[in-house]
Amino acid sequence: MEAKLRARHPDFDPTFRDQLQALLAWRRDVRRFRRDALPQGTIERLIEIACLSPSVGLSEPWRFVIVEDQARRAAIRDCFGACNQDALRQQEPDRASLYARLKLSGLDDAPSQVAVFADHATAQGHGLGRLTMPATLDYSVAIAIHTLWLAARAEGIGVGWVSILDPARVAEILDVPQGWTFIGHLCVGYPEEEADLPALQRQGWERRHPSAGVVIYR
Amino acid sequence: MEAKLRARHPDFDPTFRDQLQALLAWRRDVRRFRRDALPQGTIERLIEIACLSPSVGLSEPWRFVIVEDQARRAAIRDCFGACNQDALRQQEPDRASLYARLKLSGLDDAPSQVAVFADHATAQGHGLGRLTMPATLDYSVAIAIHTLWLAARAEGIGVGWVSILDPARVAEILDVPQGWTFIGHLCVGYPEEEADLPALQRQGWERRHPSAGVVIYR
Predict the structure, then answer these.
(1) What is the pTM of this model?
(2) Chain B, nearest residue to A64 by Cα
(3) Of A13, A124, A196, B31, whose CB count within 10 A is highest?
(4) Residue B50, Cα to own-chain centre: how many angstroms?
(5) How far is CA A98 from CA A25, A81, A205, in A?
(6) Tens of pLDDT, residue by residue, chain B (218 residues)
(7) Which of B201, B57, B47, B43 lies closest to B112, judged by CA?
(8) Contacts of B41 in chain A (CB under 8 A)
(9) Alpha-carbon distances of A162 from A87, B17, B188, rounded to whole Å
(10) Strands (E), A73-132
């Protein structure tokens, strides 16, 4: 068995590793989308790739809601608008005007939208690995979103993760089964631009810091 | 600015996309490690790549604890042992013997260990994006772990995520700053074998399901 597996396993060379780093460096949280639609079936194909992600106890708790209905999309935009107004009011005075100028979602333009949930009621995985850390179910879903994001970017497709939303309201708008917990709402489409710096850094909100500052030894 | 960015952005071709899918398919949660050490500086380099991950509000809340002290490693092994015994006792009777046979961590053999935390006290990002969804801070860290995992696998290095631990006890063992929340403990090293099926599937615990079953339309 092991020999058979070894015989088939792929080797990744330095060229691939460089490209993988470029992919990670050029993956962006996209807020400015072109309005042209993605080819039919693109989202389903990206979701299939996302399902290769790790999950606690092989629970595969990710649930993808492809949001097409215009009334539901409008309700989600309204939810974002209300939550973003609340957030603006809570900004420190010296940052409020900068906050107000940030473009924080592509909900108006992105041709595709996917809301992603974690199924807390799933029996799959028989609870393995999450007795002391139940949130690992949610982490598994966050990682599946990341996988979809990378696979999309490798095709020139941008993803923007909207978190300025009321999770209970989103679940209500989308009429999802009981036990599904909202993790993130994704805008998906062709980006208006490419960049290797985060939008929030280009807009002066925050900057990246060197990795050495986040490592300690014990 | 945009023209300059466009001029530099990488193009990813079908060969790269195929290799990326192979990477996702052959990334495993590794529990069987060879004992030989990784080259000096490997973990730090992988962490640097992980810091390219997306984070809510560019908060970069990931904190990496490289665990080298033998007494601390032993304490974490003990914590795993106790939590795993509890989990075994809670198995359904017909699954307990299968559970007992599973190898669920590489803590005994992996040459490197990294505990990963989310800094809930960070001011970075100024709270952007997480007012209604504070757990996005933790999701950002889970995604950084995933990035490290993929970068490692692309170099032939295996990662195993141990979640059968008491988070408060791990924070205590590693004496981390107040406000750091434990997300996962990583075993890192060269894997004993490669595989494109999850270990839990090969051992009969659970199996993968088709992605069509996790998609709904609204």
Answers:
(1) 0.96
(2) B215
(3) B31
(4) 11
(5) 25, 17, 7
(6) 444 444 567 889 999 999 999 999 999 999 999 999 999 999 999 999 999 999 999 999 999 999 999 999 999 999 999 999 999 999 988 999 999 999 999 999 999 999 999 999 999 999 999 999 999 999 999 999 999 999 999 999 999 999 999 999 999 999 999 999 999 999 999 999 999 999 999 999 999 999 999 999 99
(7) B43
(8) none
(9) 14, 26, 32
(10) 112-119
Is there a contact between B60 and A208 if contact means CB atoms under 8 Å apart?
A: yes
Asked if A69 is an interface residue toward chain B (Cβ–Cβ < 8 A), one would say yes
Structural domains of chain A in order of their starting residue, each with its CATH number: 30-194 (3.40.109.10)
* Residue pLDDT, tens place only, A44-88: 999 999 999 999 999 999 999 999 999 999 999 999 999 999 999
Distance from CA of A143 to the nearest CA of B (A): 5
Q: Which residues in B lie closer than 8 A to residue A201 (C-beta atoms)?
A: 58
What ipTM did this prediction achieve?
0.96
**Angstroms from A150 CA to nearest CA on chain B:** 9
Q: Considering only residues 21 to 50 of chain A, which have any Cβ-Cβ distance to chain B shorter than 8 Å?
A: 21-27, 29, 44, 47-50
A3-35, pLDDT tens digit by residue? 444 456 788 999 999 999 999 999 999 999 999
Helix (H, G, I), strand (E, B) or coil at A31: coil
Among B19, B92, B214, beta carbon nearest to A16: B19
Q: Does B100 touch chain A (CB under 8 A)?
A: no
pLDDT, tens only, A150-161: 999 999 999 999
* CB-CB under 8 Å, B205 with A58: yes
Q: Find, in chain B, the residue whose alpha carbon is nearest to that of A15.
A: B16
Cα–Cα distance between A8 and A1 in angstroms, integer? 11
